[in-house]
Design a protein that fits this description.
Number of strands: 9
Number of domains: 2
CATH topology of the largest domain: Beta-clip-like
Number of helices: 2
Order of helices and strands: EEEEEEEEEHH
CATH class of the largest domain: Mainly Beta
Strand order of the largest sheet: 4-5-3-8-7
CATH superfamily of the largest domain: SET domain
Largest sheet: 5 strands, antiparallel
Helix content: 10-25%
Oligomer: single chain
Mean pLDDT: 73
Radius of gyration: 22 Å
Distance between the termini: 83 Å
Low-confidence stretches: 1-6, 125-137
CATH architecture of the largest domain: Beta Complex
């Protein structure tokens, strides 16, 4: 009788090419708000080892490299997931902060420190009070502009203008 080996990786997640950056983690099924997405054990890496850039937690004496999908989640200013680090167990727990649909990429917020320690600029802007103010304002003006064009076109067709 053959036993099937269980996967160490969650079947509710997969890695795919991301439209945001490189590869990302995607939901294979719907994930409810507050649900645990994944718990990742970590490897402790000497702070003098600069070979790896995918460390997660940077302490004065060491860095932590998450296992599982932990090093693959992409950054977003309005993420659909969050993470917490259990210092005693050296485990990073990822949770859904809102409903994540099947096929949707899962994002976390790296924090300003992540970019600062690597001396790079984030490719996605930091949120303004929890939402992207400029993007919202831009969308508002587009809607107003298109509405004015429609009214102008209808009036021109009807011979009013």
């Amino acid at each position: 009788m053959k036993k099937k080996a269980s996967s160490l990786l969650s079947s509710k997640l997969s890695v795919k090419k991301s439209p945001v950056h490189g590869y990302g983690v995607f939901a294979n099924q719907k994930i409810k708000p507050g649900a645990i997405i994944e718990e990742c054990h970590t490897l402790i890496i000497d702070n003098h080892d600069d070979v790896i850039n995918y460390y997660f937690i940077h302490k004065p004496d060491y860095k932590l490299l998450p296992l599982g999908y932990g090093a693959i989640y992409n950054h977003a200013p309005q993420p659909n997931a969050s993470f917490i680090f259990d210092q005693d167990r050296h485990i990073i727990t990822f949770r859904a902060t809102r409903l994540i649909k099947r096929g949707e990429e899962i994002f976390i917020f790296y924090g300003k420190e992540w970019f600062k320690t690597r001396d790079i600029e984030p490719n996605i802007p930091i949120p303004f009070h929890g939402y992207d103010f400029i993007s919202t304002l831009f969308r508002f003006f587009i809607v107003v502009f298109v509405s004015i064009l429609i009214v102008f076109s209808v009036n021109q067709i009807n011979g009013i203008i």
